[in-house]
Give the backbone structure.
Amino acid sequence: MTDHKVPVTVLGGGSFGTTLANLLASNSVPTTLWLRNEEQASEMREQRENTRYLPGIKLDPQLTVTTDMASALSAAELVFLAIPSGAFRSVLQQIGPGLAGKGLISTTKGIEQPGFLMMSQIVEQEVPEARVAVLSGPNLAREMAAGALTATVVASDDEALSAQVQDVLGCQSLRVYASQDRYGVELGGALKNVYAIISGMAAAMGVGENTKSMLITRALAEMTRFAVHMGANPLTFLGLAGVGDLIVTCTSPMSRNYQVGHALGKGLTLEESIARLGQVAEGVNTLKVLRQKSLEEGVYMPLVAGLHAIIFEQQPLADVIGRLMSAEQKHDVEFSAFMASTPLTKEQK
Ligand SMILES: NC(=O)C1=CN([C@@H]2O[C@H](COP(=O)(O)OP(=O)(O)OC[C@H]3O[C@@H](n4cnc5c(N)ncnc54)[C@H](OP(=O)(O)O)[C@@H]3O)[C@@H](O)[C@H]2O)C=CC1
Ligand SMILES: O=C(CO)COP(=O)(O)O
């Protein structure tokens, strides 16, 4: 790590934006957190706490909180984007040329439709002169904010940018691993949210431990099958941004997607489940987008089809489970052919 830390801005004052900004500031990185709500911003400045999204976590005294986008961006070399996917493009469009030349790191785990676009692809469209990376992994905001030992992945073609992100974020509680498979890392973060909804639903129904394990493992097989079809490296899904994030989101009641699934499993409607949460659960929209894409691409995704049938086609749960359990019994691990055709590099050996 270097002594001199580049100035960083985080866009988005929700649970993850606040967590990242606080971590950066406590790493002695000059950090500004931008959010859109002045009432919330002034409360955060006065009380040194984000009572709406991260109650109980004290904000570092050095963290600057503002709603003034121009001042937030003027000095920043790196900008972390923690805006929900539904608003991601419109926020970038409001900023425009203010981001040119900066290192932009998306932390958003969603997919834009139409186009089936990852957030970093939206960054490339809206800010063609930017340097682009994504950050993803098993990173429940509340735990990270409380200092739990955590690991994450920065993925970019730009190795210097990945190194800068490792430098500003890495600390005694957070390890930042690098990857060059930006698409795979981003896809992993978005897809696992759908399976977290299923896992939450299953937990609410009181399923057994075997069932939970089957769900997570078949979820990994399904999301990897889709990702490989879309051009990602299956090995990425063995890492933190794949199976790592899948495990945490499918097992922790802290996950908002899991909570939506749990509420659905207890009999609440989708609208009630979302309203009760009061935070973003990206998996609901990703489910719609993914179902459509899997049909277009002809990728077999029985769990996605099943959840879609329950939530959006009002099919009885028992029918869906019956269909899943009586489907053709196929292969456990599907990528032996890929592995055989991809020799290990010198470093991997
Ligand atoms: N929380 C977590 O554990 C993690 C989250 N992520 C990802 O980070 C992204 C952000 O999630 P998270 O912080 O958790 O979400 P939250 O629901 O906690 O907060 C959402 C934030 O986005 C703001 N926002 C919404 N729309 C706009 C807009 N048009 N302009 C500006 N700000 C807006 C909200 O502001 P307002 O209050 O004014 O509506 C709020 O500050 C998601 O894609 C999520 O998947 C990734 C890793 C971990
Ligand atoms: O992505 C996350 C953990 O890595 C957060 O998951 P939720 O959005 O379901 O809370």
Observations:
- The first helix runs from residue 15 to 26.
